[in-house]
């Protein structure tokens, strides 16, 4: 372990370990079920134009409040708009916002986590700020930020990123603190390797497992919280309805047309359930000792 | 113990300062001229000047911060733009309602989470365990405002058991309170109950493997005492530390849930503040709820310390 | 030895799944007032045998054979009957005094609970009895100790508390599973003295499980030697030390750490215990045996008597050779 391994064997080692993880993951029931649910939702979202060519905003006063049937798989709403098309098109926004939050978390979480955990400059200050941000109830802070920024998809992304980045940075920082004490990292430092090289080649690979697990949970929280924001009218405008907006619109007709509320909610539930299962499976396989960072 | 309380409170001060600074900063996130956003496009220049003066936006930043803290120390969070009364008064007047439902919901959460988690652990790898695990996963995956709407359809519209909304104060009519508070409390509880189920289950599985459980069985104690006394006492420890988190998520959820059920608590107060762009109210509400949670977490910490003999004796 | 045995184990086999068998065909007796030692390396099946007697094995364990206690087969008792027997007629002390007491209850709580479950009495009376028990096992200032939590006590004191709990209903049999392993040497000696004392004062039979031959020499009447799930030799302590019949026993005696703490590891047994999943053919000890002959690989020798007080499971043991010649 203390020897510095040379590049080619590193590559073959990486390939070997990738094969090893794929095998372990495909044996994990939770991961598989999560992959099927979430993968299915992603597939439907991407294939939306192939599934329905109906304009999600096309009005049809004649066909108001049609319950789900062969013609209208998910029924129609108060203005006769096709719910199948609306749910599928809304998916793009809901998942897109979630994905953007995940990307921002990966970039800033790693960056801030590395500054705090490896360079230890600003560690105290950054962690105090993270503590303060995490002291707010997560969704409440997101609502506050979004309310100030004004409703838009970018607002939802920024608000949710601010809420979850401190949590991700903490996870990264914690695994960096462990990794920097490892023998071969110490050896690399003693051999005079530069900080950047040590960080990227020796330390970051050790942080990947907890980071991936954390990001899959962030995705789940982001989809769930975005629904709350759009339900409150703080996310994207209603012209491209995200799932939360659909639920908010359907709420008015809860008595006569419950499907308007139930179907988009189920879409959220399946997505988040899939992501949670995915995260559980990844944690079991990649990082069995990690606890959920709320 | 007294020294511990003091040090715990002192530790909270830097966090409180940062929290209040973040809450203060929220208003600077408003893009462009905050006064225009608040006043709306039809506002006259005089009205805009009035808004700027009310919010102190016409002052230099450092004066604004100093004024903010000066007011904060006197318990002044500013004046609501729409209600025209001090934010603190509005929050205090509404808090008993939210606290009542929060406690109701917390009790439900603990009852459901603890019993489901224990049941799952005691039937490890059997169908009850799988069902409980699924329940827990659904709990953390379902949007609770959607759950609230589905419950309204089911229990209010179709079955007609409970009203679809409204609120009756407990002091006036306890039965009426129970009828109006049950659906909101359950909607809030189910999500946290999933979280608690997962934690209870994994802690219980760990505890059941401990040597002292074997000792308890070796004494010839009946199984229900082994589980209900020896195991449960050790499971309760991590559960107590979760209460702060549970309440935090619960209060977040109350904005939407109280709005849906028409419960006039802090949640719906903030909900309407959001749609009315009542920024002092949003700012104040955020700070009020977060500070309350921070203090509550200290209380829970102390409670935990007094519950666990290993820490308690050391602290003495 | 002619009196009926208190505990009589016959052909006890414990397996955890089809591949892993922890104990095979173990048979031994414990007579009233006797101190029988079970010795062997860790993983030899001695602790599993003890847990089988207590009925404390996890539900996944498959147990066959018979365990007669005062004439009743414990393996056929209902859970309820077994529970009533546990703690009242058979007490047990575990290896880990640090983790065997519940951290959130006081010592007094945990002793009185054991007292009252088999002998309902007032809280006050149980408290007095607990004080008495702590006094008996040599805990100083017992009244004050009852108020303490486990973490406030040293390992030695905790093990004394465990003994007090095990003795709370004056059991006829006390099982001590490596009671001194986790403790330092002076405390070890004190605890062994205590066990001996209890046996003399109350006539409690003791089944002492250890991997330490020195401990055996100190206190045991008779010793059962286990190796890789099987009993390989059984003898009185004197026969065992003077005339060990099984090469494994000889090996153990060669590597006995003395009670003064200095380990005199002059000769140790080379190699390690076989993997329970891939047992060698024939005698399980053959791969490590310095005296192994080709015939050892053909069959597992049964445990057969060499003299009235000694049995061994080795084809080279003189008794067996004689039998084979007959």
Question: In words, what does this structure look like?
Answer:
The complex is a heterotrimer of chains A (294), B (316) and C (326). Chain A has helices at residues 7-26, 29-46, 48-51, 83-119, 123-135, 138-149, 153-179, 183-190, 195-231, 243-251, 259-286. Chain A has 294 residues and is an all-alpha fold. In chain A, helix 6 (138-149) crosses helix 7 (153-179) and helix 7 packs antiparallel against helix 9 (195-231). Chain A is elongated. Chain C is an alpha/beta fold and 326 residues long. Helices cover 33% and strands 21% of the residues of chain C. Chain C contains eleven helices and twelve strands. In chain C, the strands form two sheets. An eight-stranded mixed sheet of chain C has the order 6-7-8-3-9-10-12-11, with helices on both faces. A four-stranded antiparallel sheet of chain C has the order 2-1-4-5, covered by helices on one side. In chain C, a hairpin with a 2-residue loop joins strand 9 and strand 10. Chain C is globular and about 65 Å long. Residues 257-266 and 321-326 of chain C have low confidence and may be disordered. Chains in contact: A-B, B-C. Chains A and B meet through helix 5, helix 6, helix 9, helix 10 and helix 11 of A and helix 1, helix 6, helix 7, helix 10 and helix 11 of B.
């Amino acid at each position: 372990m203390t020897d510095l391994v040379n590049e080619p064997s590193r590559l073959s080692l990486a390939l070997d370990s990738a094969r090893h993880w794929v095998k372990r993951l495909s044996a994990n029931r939770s991961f598989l079920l999560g992959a099927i649910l979430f993968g299915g939702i992603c597939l439907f979202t991407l294939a939306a134009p192939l599934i329905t060519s109906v304009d999600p905003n096309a009005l049809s006063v004649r066909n108001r409040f049609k319950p789900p049937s062969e013609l209208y798989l998910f029924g129609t709403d108060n203005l006769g708009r096709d719910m199948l098309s609306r749910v599928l098109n809304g998916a793009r926004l809901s998942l897109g916002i979630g994905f953007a939050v995940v990307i921002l978390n990966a970039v800033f979480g790693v960056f801030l986590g590395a500054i705090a955990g490896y360079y230890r400059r600003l560690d105290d200050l950054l962690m105090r700020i993270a503590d303060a941000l995490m002291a707010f109830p997560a969704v409440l802070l997101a609502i506050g930020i979004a309310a100030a920024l004004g409703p838009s998809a970018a607002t939802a992304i920024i608000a949710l990123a601010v809420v979850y980045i401190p949590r991700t940075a903490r996870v990264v920082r914690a695994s960096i603190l462990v990794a920097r004490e490892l023998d071969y990292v110490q050896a690399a430092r003693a051999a005079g390797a530069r900080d950047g090289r040590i960080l990227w080649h020796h330390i970051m690979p050790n942080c990947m497992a907890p980071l991936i697990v954390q990001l899959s949970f962030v995705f789940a929280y982001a989809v769930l919280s975005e629904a709350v924001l759009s339900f409150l009218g703080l996310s994207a405008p209603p012209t491209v309805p995200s799932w939360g907006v659909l639920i908010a619109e359907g709420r008015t007709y809860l008595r006569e047309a419950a499907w308007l509320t139930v179907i988009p909610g189920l879409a959220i539930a399946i997505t988040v359930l899939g992501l949670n299962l995915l995260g559980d499976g990844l944690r079991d396989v990649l990082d069995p000792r990690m606890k959920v960072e709320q | 113990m007294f020294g511990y309380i003091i040090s715990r409170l002192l530790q909270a001060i830097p966090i409180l300062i940062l929290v209040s600074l973040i809450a203060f900063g929220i208003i600077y996130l408003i893009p462009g001229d905050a006064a225009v956003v608040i006043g709306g496009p039809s506002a006259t220049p005089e009205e805009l000047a009035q808004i700027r003066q009310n919010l102190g936006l016409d002052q230099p930043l450092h004066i604004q911060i100093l004024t903010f803290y000066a007011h904060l120390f006197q318990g002044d969070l500013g004046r609501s733009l729409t209600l025209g009364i001090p934010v603190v008064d509005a929050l205090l007047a509404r808090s008993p309602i939210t606290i009542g439902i929060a406690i109701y919901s917390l009790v439900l959460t603990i009852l459901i989470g603890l019993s489901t988690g224990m049941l799952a652990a005691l039937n490890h790898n059997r169908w009850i365990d799988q069902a409980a695990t699924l329940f827990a996963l659904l709990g953390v995956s379902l949007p609770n405002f959607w759950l609230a709407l589905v419950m309204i359809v089911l229990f209010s519209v179709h079955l007609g058991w409970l009203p679809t909304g409204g609120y009756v104060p407990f002091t006036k009519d306890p039965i009426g309170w129970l009828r109006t508070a049950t659906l909101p409390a359950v909607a809030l509880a189910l999500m946290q109950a999933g979280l608690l189920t997962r934690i209870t289950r994994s802690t219980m599985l760990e505890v059941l493997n401990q040597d002292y459980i074997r000792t308890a069985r070796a004494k010839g104690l009946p199984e229900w005492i082994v589980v209900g006394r020896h195991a449960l006492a050790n499971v309760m420890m991590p559960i107590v530390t979760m209460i702060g988190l549970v309440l935090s998520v619960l209060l977040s959820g109350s904005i939407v849930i109280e709005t849906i059920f028409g419960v006039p608590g802090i949640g719906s107060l903030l909900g309407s503040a959001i749609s009315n762009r009542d920024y002092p109210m949003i700012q104040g509400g955020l700070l009020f709820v977060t500070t309350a949670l921070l203090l509550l977490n200290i209380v829970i910490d102390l409670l935990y310390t007094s519950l666990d003999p290993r820490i308690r004796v050391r602290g003495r | 030895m002619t009196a009926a045995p208190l505990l009589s184990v016959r052909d006890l086999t414990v397996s955890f799944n089809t591949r892993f068998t922890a104990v095979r065909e173990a048979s031994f007796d414990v007579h009233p007032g006797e101190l029988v030692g079970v010795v062997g390396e860790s993983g030899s099946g001695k602790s599993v045998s003890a847990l089988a007697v207590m009925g404390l094995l996890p539900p996944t364990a498959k147990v066959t054979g018979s365990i007669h206690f005062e004439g009743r087969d414990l393996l056929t008792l209902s859970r309820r009957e077994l529970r009533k027997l546990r703690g009242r007629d058979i007490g047990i002390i575990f290896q880990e005094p640090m983790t065997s007491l519940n951290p959130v209850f006081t010592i007094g709580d945990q002793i009185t609970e054991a007292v009252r479950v088999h002998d309902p009495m007032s809280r006050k009376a149980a408290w007095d009895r607990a004080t008495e028990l702590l006094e008996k096992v040599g805990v100083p200032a017992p009244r004050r100790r009852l108020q303490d939590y486990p973490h406030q006590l040293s390992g030695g004191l905790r093990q004394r508390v465990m003994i007090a709990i095990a003795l709370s209903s004056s059991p006829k049999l006390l099982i001590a599973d490596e009671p001194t392993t986790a403790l330092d040497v002076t405390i070890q000696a004190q605890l062994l003295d205590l066990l001996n004392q209890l046996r003399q004062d109350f006539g409690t039979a003791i089944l002492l499980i250890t991997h330490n031959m020195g401990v055996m020499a100190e206190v045991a009447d008779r010793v059962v030697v286990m190796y890789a799930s099987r009993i390989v030799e059984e003898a009185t302590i004197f026969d065992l030390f003077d005339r060990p019949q099984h090469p494994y026993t000889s090996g153990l005696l060669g590597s006995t750490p003395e009670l003064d703490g200095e380990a005199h590891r002059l000769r140790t047994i080379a190699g390690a215990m076989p993997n329970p999943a891939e047992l060698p053919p024939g005698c399980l000890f053959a791969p490590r045996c310095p005296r192994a002959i080709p015939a050892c690989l053909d069959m597992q020798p049964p445990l057969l008597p060499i003299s009235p007080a000694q049995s061994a499971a080795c084809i080279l043991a003189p008794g067996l050779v004689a039998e084979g010649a007959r």
